[in-house]
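Hey, resending since the last one bounced:
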Amino acid sequence: MTAWRDYQESTAYFFRVLGMDANVGERVAGARGRHDVDVVVRTSRAGIEHIEQLWIVECKRWRRSVSKLHVAALVSIVQDVGADRGFLMSETGFQPGAFKLASLSNITLTSLTELKEGCCPHERTIVNTGTGFLTCTACGMVQPIDW
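The structure tokens again:
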């Protein structure tokens, strides 16, 4: 598997561990057309199935930092499909203009490493052990889910 595809799959897995539905490489319909999205995350709000949140996640596995233009592109997609939030993932960081634009929108600039901080370091060993908690089957760490 290529590094960028692995990054998408790992990102989707992270959201699945949190109890959300996450699909890699999904085509999402918007008002102005269809968009091929790296990861689409769906989750019900407060456990109510008909109140669904939609997040669009773009994964940039690059050697350089991500520019403002890529944030603007994600803002456009998020608006077009009516998503609640967009995530732009990059392990190499973001240019200053990217942070400024994201701060004025519903876009979160982060990395998979940053999202995992404070979480169990083991891969593929996290299980949902009940309402509001995740547990690692390797180390026993219990973590509340706080949304």
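The chain has four helices and eight strands.

Sorry for the duplicate.
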